[in-house]
């Protein structure tokens, strides 16, 4: 069987901006037979995520991520349907997901790396298993629960950067559900700002590309900032931290503004901002969702319940076709997405 697949064509270099040309599409032949323990799957949706920037380097900088190899198939989060199974726990027609789904139209995989998913949890929107009811949703939920110290009824204000992206758009809504009284987002376009306020229930939002973030936050967070869900780092985060109250908490989710720079993670804060953390007793602990695997099942059920009750709104930007994986990745890294950036491979 002839399939299409995506391989790594080139590396952007440690300090380079990724481009669609870093990826290449080619044809390949899939064997007709599968072995015991294997399944053949058809790919429905693939995910592009910021962490993949590390996999484009020869060294990823973290032990839980392996670099992609030149001319080898790239992989990440995926959802598909089982077409043939010689693995006891999966049958033809099952929907499955994996963090290590090869970027190809069909694949033969070890059944063990696949997890069966229940379409009812997402009202049939299978791509949500890669976003709101998947790893990014868990990141927002567990980040807030484990590092946010949100206490209902205590009038906390939360600021979220990267607010119109996948994790950010969910974090703002979850902050409200968990009891924050005011939620303010920071994002990169006026359209995103409008979506945050009119569709996702943020009290206000700031466009960091055109507005003075610190000045706006002073007005929009009159009682100061108690919790900061940080997706971006850099000067945006410095401005937020300067507005934080004593005993506040930074949820150190990600630092996407620094991912094309060869600096250790998390990048150092300017000394004056570091001094604010100490003076005001603000916590800023590294958060990695993969350290909380024991909470994934209950977290997915919680996210699904909120979604089906209409309390958690899900935004997606969908691009069609395996040949657009590189373009989708580039677009997400430069702010082209609202909500989760998804690539639809087949129906
Ligand atoms: N800790 C964990 O376990 C974990 C797990 C998943 C994700 N993450 C992190 O969470 C963050 C968000 O991930 P996501 O999946 O939700 O991605 P995403 O927000 O859907 O997409 C990335 C967004 O970041 C914004 N951005 C890009 N460059 C920027 C810059 N220089 N300054 C400010 N904003 C910039 C863009 O929107 P704008 O238009 O607003 O610029 C872009 O749409 C990332 O840092 C990621 O690494 C962490």
UniProtKB/TrEMBL annotation:
It comes from the Eukaryota. GO terms for cellular component: cytoplasm. It catalyses: 13,14-dihydro-15-oxo-prostaglandin E2 + NADP(+) = 15-oxoprostaglandin E2 + NADPH + H(+); 13,14-dihydro-15-oxo-prostaglandin F1alpha + NADP(+) = 15-oxoprostaglandin F1alpha + NADPH + H(+); 13,14-dihydro-15-oxo-PGF2alpha + NADP(+) = 15-oxoprostaglandin F2alpha + NADPH + H(+); 13,14-dihydro-15-oxo-prostaglandin E2 + NAD(+) = 15-oxoprostaglandin E2 + NADH + H(+). It is found in: Cytoplasm. Keywords: Cytoplasm, Lipid metabolism, NADP, Oxidoreductase. Residues 16-343 form the Enoyl reductase (ER) domain. Its EC number is 1.3.1.48. GO terms for biological process: prostaglandin metabolic process. Its main location: cytoplasm. It is an enzyme of class 1 (oxidoreductase). GO terms for molecular function: 15-oxoprostaglandin 13-reductase [NAD(P)+] activity. Belongs to the NADP-dependent oxidoreductase L4BD family. Monomer. Functions as 15-oxo-prostaglandin 13-reductase and acts on 15-keto-PGE1, 15-keto-PGE2, 15-keto-PGE1-alpha and 15-keto-PGE2-alpha with highest activity towards 15-keto-PGE2. Overexpression represses transcriptional activity of PPARG and inhibits adipocyte differentiation. This is Prostaglandin reductase 2. It comes from Ornithorhynchus anatinus. The lineage of its organism: Eukaryota, Metazoa, Chordata, Craniata, Vertebrata. The gene is PTGR2.
């Amino acid at each position: 069987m002839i399939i299409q697949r995506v391989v790594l064509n080139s590396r952007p270099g440690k300090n380079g901006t990724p481009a669609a040309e870093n990826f290449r599409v080619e044809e390949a032949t899939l064997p007709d037979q599968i072995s015991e323990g294997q399944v053949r799957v058809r790919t429905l949706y693939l995910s592009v995520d910021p962490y993949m920037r590390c996999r484009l380097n020869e060294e990823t900088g973290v032990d839980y991520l392996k670099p992609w190899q030149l001319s080898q198939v790239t992989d990440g989060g995926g959802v598909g349907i089982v077409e043939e199974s010689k693995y006891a726990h999966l049958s033809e027609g099952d929907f499955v997901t994996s963090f290590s789904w090869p970027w190809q139209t069909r694949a033969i995989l070890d059944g063990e790396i696949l997890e069966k998913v229940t379409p009812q949890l997402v009202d049939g929107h299978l791509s949500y298993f890669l976003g709101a009811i998947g790893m990014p949703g868990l990141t927002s939920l567990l980040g807030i629960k484990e590092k946010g110290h949100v206490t209902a009824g205590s009038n906390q204000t939360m600021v979220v950067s990267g607010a119109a992206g996948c994790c950010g758009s969910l974090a703002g809504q979850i902050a409200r559900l968990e009891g924050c009284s005011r939620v303010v987002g920071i994002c990169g376009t006026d359209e995103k700002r409008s979506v945050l306020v009119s569709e996702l229930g943020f009290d206000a939002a700031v466009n960091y590309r055109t507005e003075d973030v610190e000045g706006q936050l002073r007005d929009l967070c009159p009682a100061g900032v108690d919790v900061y869900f940080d997706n971006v780092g850099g000067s945006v985060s410095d401005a937020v931290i300067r507005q934080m109250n004593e005993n506040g908490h930074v949820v150190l989710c990600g630092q996407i503004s620094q991912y094309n720079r060869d600096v250790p993670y998390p990048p150092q804060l300017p000394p004056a901002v570091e001094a604010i953390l100490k003076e005001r007793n603000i916590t800023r602990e590294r958060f990695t969702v993969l350290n909380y695997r024991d909470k994934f099942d209950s977290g997915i059920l919680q996210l699904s319940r909120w979604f089906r009750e209409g309390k958690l709104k899900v935004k997606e930007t969908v691009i069609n076709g395996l040949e657009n994986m590189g373009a989708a990745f580039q677009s997400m890294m430069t702010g082209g997405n609202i909500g989760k950036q998804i690539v639809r491979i087949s129906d």
